[in-house]
User: What shape does this take?
Amino acid sequence: MRKALKTFAVSVLFDFFAHDSGLTFGCCCFLIIFNANDILLSDRMPQIIVLSIILFGRKNMAVLKNKPQKDGNVYIPFEKRTGDFSTVYFTRDLSPEGLEKVFDRVKDNIVGKTAIKLHTGEKNGPNIIPSSWIEELMKSEPELADAAIVETNTYYEGDRYTTEQHRETLKVNGWTFCPVDIMDEEGTKLLPIKGGKWMKEMSVGSHMTDYNSLVVMTHFKGHTMGGFGGSNKNIGIGCADGRIGKKWIHSRKGLGMWSIAQEELMERISESTKATIDFFGEHVSYVNVMRNMSVSCDCEGCSAEPVVTPNVGILASKDILAIDQASVDLIYAMKPDDREALVKRIESRHGLRQLSYMKELGMGNDLYKLIDIDNGDAEISCEEAVKDVTPFVY
Assistant: This one.
C-alpha cells in the first residue's frame, strides 16, 4: 500500500510540475512521499520545504510571470506612441503593376534562394491575393525569378490538412506557375525564440532553413481568432508546422484544440514569428495587400463573411511591426461606418496585442513615415491615404 501510494505521489507530482502547478501542491506530494517511506515528518519538515521550493519555486515564479497583458482591445493613437520611425511605402494601385511598384522599394535586401510566404487559400477562396498578380511579379522581378512559394499544412482538418490535399488545393487556386514548397511535408525543425515568455523555440517546416531570404506577401484582413491577419499572422501561424508548431500556438494540454485565445494567443503568434524573422535577419521584406478585407481569414474559404470594408491599397516595408501597425491605422482612419466591422473584429479578439507585444520583443517600430509612391514619395497621414476610399462592391 505504501509503495503504491509513493508511486502515485511521484507520478502526480511530476504531472503537476509539468503543467505549471505551484508550490503548495508540491509540498503536499512530498509529504505523501516521505510518509510512505516511514520518515518522521517532524524531523524532515525543513528538508521537505527546501526540496519543494527548489523543484516548484522557479516554476511557480515562471507561472506568475507568464500572464498575458490585458490591453489587446485598446487602440493606441499614433501621437501617443514613442520610439524610432520606420518607413512604410503605400500605393492605391491594386493591380499587378501596383504590387510591382511597391515591392521595388523593399527588394534590395532579398538575395540568394528566396521563399515567398503566401496564404494560398482554401479551395476557390474568393479573397486571396490573385495568383495572376504573383505570377506577373515573379516574372518581372529578377530577384524572384527562381523563388518558391512556401506554405505549411494546416492544424485543422480541411483542404490543406495533408500534403496531398494541400497540393490539390494549390492546383484549384492557380498556384501552378512556380515551385510551391510545403515546408513541413518532410518533417520539422526547431528555431530558437529569443526573449519569449511562453515558448523558447518554435517548430517550423524543415525546409525553411533551405532559404536565404523571405518575402512575406500578405493579404491583410480580419481573423476569427487573431482579430486581424497581417504579416505577423502570416508568418507566426503560417510558418509553424501543421502538427507541432501550430498546436503550441493554439492549444493548452487537455483543454481543446483552440483553447488559447485573446492576448495569450497574440503573444504566442508573435513569438513564433520572431523565431522565423530572427533566422532570416535582414533578408526579409513585407508586403500587405489591403483588398477584399473580410472579417474572416482566408482559412474560411468560401464560408468567409461578406466583405464590407473598403479596399485601400498595398503597403511595403522592411519592418514587420511598422507595416502591420500602418495597416491597422489605415482601418482606424476610415469613416466610422467603413471601419466598424473590422474594428469590432480586431477589438473583440484583443488582436491589438499583436502590435504591442511585437514592440516589447524588439521586432520593429510602431511609429513610421507613410510614403505615398503615387504622388512623388510625399509623406502622408493615414487619414489622407483613406480619404477617397469607396464602399466595397463585389
